[in-house]
Specification:
Strands 2-3-1-4 form a four-stranded antiparallel sheet. It is globular and about 45 Å long. Helix content is 39%, strand content 31%. It is built from three helices and four strands; from the N terminus they run βαββααβ. The chain has one domain: Alpha-Beta Plaits. β2 and β3 form a beta hairpin. With 108 residues, the chain is an alpha+beta fold. InterPro entries: Dimeric_a/b-barrel (IPR011008), NIPSNAP (IPR012577). It comes from Paraburkholderia acidisoli.
Length: 108
């Protein structure tokens, strides 16, 4: 198992729009493509409180590539994402980190 940590850095005041998009739209597409989120967090203390951090569980990099690419290419997802940003962009920058557990990690 590997874990992907994704951090979405939002434009100022746009975090509520991102949270709404995840809860009302994105999670349905994750389910459709078998993408398994572990958890979602907003930042209380840190460099910026305009970000969403979440973790996704993958069996391996091949699973990640197949499922993530299918999700990203979904015409309905592309249209809904564009509609959510019709007023103005939501996300300024995305970080993605692929993490491998250590031998002593409780989550493996």
């Amino acid at each position: 198992m590997i874990v992907e940590m994704r951090i979405y850095h939002c434009a100022p005041t746009r975090l509520p729009a991102l949270l709404d998009r995840f809860s009302s739209t994105t999670l349905g597409f994750f389910e459709k493509y078998g993408i398994k989120p572990i958890g979602f967090w907003t930042t209380l203390i840190g460099e910026s409180n305009h970000s969403l951090t979440y973790l996704v569980q993958w069996e391996n990099l091949a699973e990640r590539e197949q499922k993530w690419n299918a999700f990203q290419a979904d015409a309905e997802w592309i249209a809904k994402r564009a509609a959510s940003e019709a007023e103005r962009p939501i996300v300024e920058r995305i970080e993605s980190h692929i993490l491998a557990p250590t031998a002593f990690s409780p989550l493996r």
